[in-house]
Amino acid sequence: MFGLGFMEILFIAIVAIIFLGPDKLPGAMVDIAKFIKSAKNAITDAKQSLNEEVNLDELKREALGYKEQLDKATEELQGFKNLNPMNDLKEAADLGSVKDNFERLTQREPEAEGTQVEAKQSEEITFKKKTVSDPTLGEVKKENKALKKEAKKKVEEDQAGDN
């Protein structure tokens, strides 16, 4: 009780008997018991009202629900963390084997004795620039110029007539 040992309780009882006397001691013990009981009730009521106001249990459940959702989302994102489409393409193409095949195919086979291979002469190919003239395009340009001149003349005549 309150972390007191037998010797401490005995000492308190002897001091209480000396100061209170045998006739007031039973009433004091009852008052002390009532005080302890009311203190325990007050603490219990305070805990209950605090739990009702704060709803700790509900908050704990909600927090655990959010934690579970975050854990699921984290697991899903772990799959995307190392996702690199270039790595997938490199693995699918297997470029190393293509390079090896190219080198193998382009290597010269050993020449047989007495057989000489002549070097191939390079052939030069040149392309000359060719200009293409479209007679209809030139005619359309001339017609557009003539129409513009006629339109200017009409505008000038209209302005002169209005004055």
UniProtKB/TrEMBL annotation:
Tagged with keyword Signal: no
Region (Disordered): 107-163
Signal peptide range: none
Pfam families documented for this protein: TatA_B_E
A GO term for molecular function: protein transmembrane transporter activity
Any Gene Ontology biological process: protein transport by the Tat complex
Listed GO CC annotations: TAT protein transport complex
Matching InterPro entries: TatA/B/E, TatB
Record field: compositional bias (Basic and acidic residues): 139-157
Cellular localization per UniProt: Cell membrane; Membrane
Top-level taxon of the source organism: Bacteria
Membrane topology label: Single-pass membrane protein
Keywords: Cell membrane, Coiled coil, Membrane, Protein transport, Translocation, Transmembrane, Transmembrane helix, Transport
Any coiled-coil regions, as ranges: 56-83
HAMAP family attached to this UniProt entry: TatB
Family statement: Belongs to the TatB family.
NCBIfam families: tatB
Protein known as: Sec-independent protein translocase protein TatB homolog
Organism per entry: uncultured Sulfurovum sp
